[in-house]
Write a structure and sequence with these properties.
Blueprint: H1 4-18, H2 22-36, E1 37-47, H3 50-57, H4 59-79, E2 83-88, E3 91-96, H5 99-117, E4 128-140, E5 144-146, H6 148-160, E6 166-169, H7 170-173, E7 184-191, E8 194-201
Parallel strand pairs: 4-6
Antiparallel strand pairs: 1-3, 1-4, 2-3, 4-5, 6-8, 7-8
């Protein structure tokens, strides 16, 4: 059963699509942003190796790894002030009040999985990639979010970042104070034909 915020959101979208008056559409859009708009750092995590591991060991094997990923990441998200939105397949979606919190959580997750992988067989090791952006988005209750920052974080975390990587848009990285000591190298990310300045966080000890 749909939650109340979700139903209101869907009803407004339907009204928007059915309205033929531009002024009415603008009014509905303004209501959507007023009621559901917010600014957050968006965090998207993807587990690496789904196709290979599933083909080799079966879906139950991989789903067991997904469950371990969920149990590891949720407390880390909350400990850095983040809000869990959803787990979808082998992805994790969360929002944070600022990019530093999101990056710090991502680094903590990478270290957590590196440590846990020392205790498991290779075929049970969990490797993740992360994408982070910041901006204005529509957030529906505690379940979902939509907007350009979500799209960019998803593309970077799921399609561009390799296992062990944390990619952050330049817009988000520019909000992190220098005294935080986050080291990163510049790079350009191509998303749907658009080049976006970004950074790859360097968190591993040399």
């Amino acid at each position: 059963m749909a939650t109340k915020p979700a139903k209101k959101f869907q009803d407004l979208l339907l009204n928007f699509s059915q309205s033929e008056e531009l002024a009415e559409r603008k009014k509905i859009e303004a209501t959507l942003w007023k009621d559901f708009g917010a600014e957050f750092a968006v965090f998207v995590l993807d587990m690496s190796g789904f196709s290979m591991l599933t083909r080799k060991y079966g879906i139950v094997h991989y789903l067991s790894m997904v469950r371990r990923m969920q149990l590891t990441t949720e407390p880390i998200v909350k400990s850095y002030g983040g809000q869990m939105l959803k787990y979808e397949a082998d992805n994790c979606f969360a929002v944070f009040p600022d990019p530093l919190s999101a990056v710090s959580a991502a680094i903590a997750m990478q270290h957590a999985f590196t440590a846990s992988n020392l205790l498991t067989a290779d075929e049970l090791d969990i490797h993740i990639s992360c994408g982070i952006d910041y901006g204005k988005l529509l957030i529906i209750g505690n379940n979902d979010c939509f907007g350009d920052p979500v799209n960019r974080a998803s593309k970077m975390g799921e399609d561009v970042a390799a296992a062990g990587e944390i990619l952050v848009t330049k817009d988000a990285m520019d909000m992190i104070p220098a005294e935080a000591g986050i080291k990163a190298r510049e790079m350009n990310v191509s998303i749907s034909g658009i080049s976006i300045p970004a950074y790859a966080v360097e968190y591993r000890a040399v």
